[in-house]
Design goal:
The chain is of the alpha/beta class and 346 residues long. It is 24% helix and 27% strand. It binds NADP nicotinamide-adenine-dinucleotide phosphate (NAP) and zinc ion (ZN) (2 copies). The site of NADP nicotinamide-adenine-dinucleotide phosphate has 32 residues, from helix 1, helix 4 and helix 5.
């Protein structure tokens, strides 16, 4: 076994704290990555607090992982030692179902394996990126460009692909009015991709203080959703709404902002089920849809797109000791716009 150290939550009542554990030996098709940076996703917080489902503890969160290859198994040919590599939300899937064959491993019909809070095919728990190393099948490791700032690339592995994938699926681009709800980790990447794809982007935010940042990210308009007059001014005006909100919110209110045939895309994952008023859908043939992370081919496509267009996340680099105050700030919507852990501080 390979010795690893990281930060784990021991139970749903405690935040991650130092913990030593073991990873599997590097198998023939595996690579071992020395982790340099790991983004802090709101999903980390949902999961260590058991907000979605009972988790597997101790839990080492983190699925926005970048680092360098230190070892490859005898049959692993994808990387050379010393090369950059990334790992996102998935470390395995069945590889045989229609979705896996179609590059939609995130929708594996037999259940994909999460980077943490999951169980591998060996039946052992998976541990994520708040740690110094990871062993993963080479198919689930991604190539990372040397051209971009490495800590700012980490959030692309979840926040990036989770917003890129639906915008590509619904072909959002020139001529479209796109609203992004919630300017946090996912939201700010949604703005960057929406702008890069040619859409007219409006940020719908509860935080008036984020307007200048939204504009600097490329957003054309900014609406404070707590201001009824500002909301009324954008009623019926969007083709698509990309909803990244992490807490309970009123979908009916946002549906009224869609044009006829508009689509409200849920990527935020609040613990409580949404209530969708039928009349809000019927009056204008509107849809509520959802999208989950992205498959391996599309994640690589997104990373290559970002390298070509110089797109990275806006980050605050943190010492791993400061994970708890960072969670507190994330809960208050006070992230500008993704915390990234420097694993050198472990
Ligand atoms: P985040 O950085 O905390 O951003 C969420 C933003 O939502 C906040 O910054 C805030 O923006 C807004 N917000 C928070 N509470 C709100 C409320 N009560 N009403 C309205 N707006 C509120 O979180 P994140 O990492 O981007 O993740 C967002 C959500 O996506 C989480 O639920 C996460 O689990 C989920 N997620 C889903 C996928 C997927 O595959 N679909 C992947 C990753 C994450 P403003 O200050 O601008 O209002
Ligand atoms: Zn995530
Ligand atoms: Zn599958």
């Amino acid at each position: 076994m390979i010795q690893a150290k990281g930060y784990a939550a021991q139970n749903p009542e405690s935040d991650p704290a130092p913990w030593s554990f073991e990873r599997r030996e590097v198998g023939p098709h595996d690579v071992q990555i020395e982790i340099l940076y790991c983004g802090v996703c709101h999903s980390d917080l949902h999961q260590i607090r058991n907000e979605w489902f009972p988790g597997i503890f101790p839990m080492v969160p983190g699925h926005e992982i970048v680092g360098r290859i230190v070892r490859s198994g005898s049959h692993a040919k994808k990387f050379k030692d010393g090369e950059l590599a990334g790992v996102g939300c998935l470390v395995d899937s069945c590889r045989t179902c229609d979705n896996c064959k179609g590059g939609l491993e995130q929708y594996c019909l037999n259940g994909s394996v999460g980077t943490y809070n999951g169980k591998g095919k060996d039946g052992l728990p998976t541990y994520g990126g708040y740690s110094n190393n990871i062993v993963v099948h080479e198919d689930f490791a991604l190539h990372i460009s040397e051209k971009l700032s490495l800590p700012a690339v980490a959030p692309l592995l979840c926040a990036g692909i989770t917003t890129y994938s639906p915008l590509r699926y619904w072909k959002v681009g020139k001529g479209h009015q796109l609203a992004v709800v919630g300017l946090g980790g996912l939201g700010h990447m949604g703005v960057k991709f929406g702008v890069a794809f040619g859409a007219e982007v409006t940020v719908l935010s509860t935080s008036a203080s984020k307007e200048a940042d939204a504009k600097a990210l490329g957003a054309h308009k900014f609406v404070v959703t707590r201001d009824a007059a500002q909301l009324a001014a954008v009623k019926g005006s969007f083709d698509f709404i990309l909803d990244t909100v992490s807490a309970k919110h009123d979908l009916g209110l946002y549906l009224s902002l869609l044009k006829t045939n508009g689509v409200h895309i849920c990527v935020g994952a609040p613990p409580e089920p949404h209530q969708v008023p039928a009349f809000a859908l019927m009056g204008g043939r509107k849809s509520v849809a959802g999208s989950g992370i992205g498959g391996l081919p599309e994640t690589q496509e997104m990373l290559d797109f970002c390298a070509e267009h110089q797109i990275v996340s806006e980050i605050e680099l943190i010492n791993i000791k400061d994970i708890s105050p960072s969670y507190e700030r994330m809960l208050k919507g006070d992230v500008r716009y993704r915390f990234v852990i420097a694993l050198a501080t472990l």
